[in-house]
Amino acid sequence: MTVSVPAPVRVSFAALNIDCTDSDALAGFWGKALGRPVSPGKVAGDTAVDAAGHESGPRMIFHTASEVNPANNRFRPILVTEHYDEEIERLTDLGAKPVNEVNLPELRWTTLADPEGNEFDLVTWRPA
């Protein structure tokens, strides 16, 4: 019997590129929402939300694009918190708009839209 050994992984998730109409404003929103620093991107016109460490997730790069269609939002960040109501209030104060809320016995989540209409979810788990 031949045992197959998987090839070593040589890639990692470094960044998430997000097209937008105002990279400074949208990076400012996500920097505040995640409590992470904002910096200029490596490409002129881009703005980045830096990852403080591997536990804070990948770097987010906001690229000003001539055409942006929120309906094509293929990445949907999911944020998790133990302070759900406080975070909903904080994120909406920053400019997020609630889209949908779901309450289940084991979890509660709200889909929100950032200032440019890109959707993301805020989730909290309920104790069993």
Q: Count every beta strand, where a strand is a DSSP E run of 2 or more residues.
A: 8
Share of residues in helices: 10-25%
**Which strands sit side by side, in order, in the main sheet?**
1-4-3-2
How much of the polypeptide forms β-strand, as a percent range?
25-35%
Biggest sheet overview: 4 strands, mixed
| Average pLDDT over all residues | 84
Count of helix runs = 2
CATH class descriptor of the largest domain:
Alpha Beta
Per the CATH scheme, the topology name of the largest domain is Signal recognition particle alu RNA binding heterodimer, srp9/1
Uncertain regions spanning at least 5 consecutive residues: none
- Succession of helices and strands: EHEEEEHEEE
Number of domains: 2
Q: Which class of secondary structure composition applies to the elements?
A: alpha/beta
The CATH architecture name of the largest domain reads 2-Layer Sandwich
Query: What Rg, in angstroms, do the CA atoms define?
Result: 17 Å
Instruction: Label the overall shape.
Output: globular
Rounded to the nearest angstrom, the distance between the terminal CA atoms is 45 Å
Q: Oligomerization state of this entry?
A: single chain
